[in-house]
């Protein structure tokens, strides 16, 4: 196993512990993705490997749904590229927070940037934003996402449709539960969240 100095081990475990709320959401969300992917005709190994290689919940769900609708491959690539553009900004913020780390580790760190992991990292105290903390957070969320895909791929023919459809709600609920407590005393974050919610609501009235 890994041999960390005591302080490094503590940071890694703190990151892993911080990921527990995300794990609770990623397991059912991973199952929901896998069920959609299997219904699109992907084999079990293909379904799992997409989670291993891609690691983006919204992007994978979109790609799987477009496969169900027999969309063109070029259209799927463009759509997933656009929906994941936000990670350029998130990854930049995470990398800037990982001061003193070598470039190759920073590049590896960007692979693990998800909405939920970013929300946790961005609201941590500055002294906790270390590469070791991020690795604990990233590895735990990554493995839970893969585990969800494995469970979903293997049980896609067993779970009732109403249960698999309800899994998609879990990620939104957990994300809200992580962000809302951090709004207390943080006027900048509160304003950002309120503006985002307002714009999202307005856009939903005009965009599909």
Concise synopsis of the structure shown:
The chain has 208 residues and is mainly alpha-helical. It contains twelve helices and no strands.
Which helices and strands appear, and what pairs or packs with what?
Blueprint (H helix, E strand, L loop, with lengths): L5 H13 L1 H20 L4 H10 L3 H12 L4 H11 L2 H12 L5 H9 L3 H8 L8 H25 L5 H6 L1 H12 L7 H20 L2
Shape: globular
Give average pLDDT, whole number: 86
**What's the tally of helices?**
12
Unreliable parts = 1-5
What are the secondary-structure elements, in order, as H or E? HHHHHHHHHHHH
Note the gap between the termini: 48 Å
Class of secondary structure makeup: mainly alpha
- Compute the number of strand runs: 0
Main beta sheet: strand number and arrangement?
none
What is the CA-based Rg, rounded? 18 Å
Helix content: over 70%
Search tags:
mainly alpha, disordered N terminus, 208 residues
What does the model show?
The protein has 208 residues and is mainly α. Helix content is 76%, strand content 0%. The protein has twelve helices and no strands. The protein has helices at residues 6-18, 20-39, 44-53, 57-68, 73-83, 86-97, 103-111, 115-122, 131-155, 161-166, 168-179, 187-206. The longest helix is centred in the last third of the chain and has 25 residues, at 131-155. It is globular, with a radius of gyration of 18 Å.
